[in-house]
Design a protein that fits this description.
Largest sheet: 7 strands, mixed
Number of strands: 14
Organism: Methanocaldococcus infernus (strain DSM 11812 / JCM 15783 / ME)
Shape: globular
Distance between the termini: 21 Å
Low-confidence stretches: none
Protein name: DegT/DnrJ/EryC1/StrS aminotransferase
CATH topology of the largest domain: Aspartate Aminotransferase, domain 2
Radius of gyration: 19 Å
Order of helices and strands: EHEHEHEEEEHEEEHHHEHEEEH
InterPro entries: PyrdxlP-dep_Trfase, PyrdxlP-dep_Trfase_major
Amino acid sequence: MLRLRYRKVPNVELEGEEEVAKEMINDLLNNDYKIYFLPSGNSAIFLIVSLFNNFTVPDVGGWKKFVDFCKILNKNFEFLKTEHGLVREVKGKYLYLTTLSGYLAKQDMKRIKKECEEKNIFLIEDLSGAIGGDCGYGDIIVGSTGEPKILNCGYGGFIGISEELSIKVDDIVKSFKTKNYFGLLIEELMNAKRCYRAYVKANYKMKKNIESSFFKDREGISLFIKHDKPKELAKKINSAIKLTKRKSLTTICPNYNRIDVKGVVFETKKIDYRELNNKVVKEITKEITNIIKSLL
């Protein structure tokens, strides 16, 4: 049995300078935004849904709360047909997507942004799982700093918008009370690139050696394993690989937030990224491979 450290919130000074945190977020993005902080990623998404209408959302690999909020606020939306979450063609008026589909596979954001500009589509990019990588193409960006995320603060979220839209948002944001957690956030922003790269590197190695894994040529911070007995596979993985916190390392699929195929997502992003050296990644791969063989 393999025991690994859970990606817990760091024990550092909580409070800090908000403006520094805003600057550091923009340093990690492809465009500059006016940043607003909110109590959670979901509250940031709720705010965005409240501002617009007639959304297009991926048919899988998105974030179900976005769809739920559309229903609650009586907003029109339609599903965009994808290839297991990957966007091949853009359409609609306001397109919402996650930079990493289901945390599993990076969207071709440069192409998507170019096509959105050509078709006059407003792009809303949820980069919660990708900050530290190539992200920040949307007309609006949204991020969660909850747990477990790249920016792993256990609290908070943010949106980034253009100056033209800021007047519309200023008064609304004031109604959300957000605590000062910017010292913690700054610490996480300092490590964002290192954290993201560690997860991507570990998953590439595991995908290379786990035959039934998907998206072998795509960046991801978790990995999907196709399997006809997902519940049995998940149970065996969670028995063989445990965290220092009683959290499951698997998500059974199909699952809208992940992928529309029968199998299991191994949630690499729940493991402390500093644990993921070559030896540990090999041990994880070996355990999963042996479990898959045992279920044949």
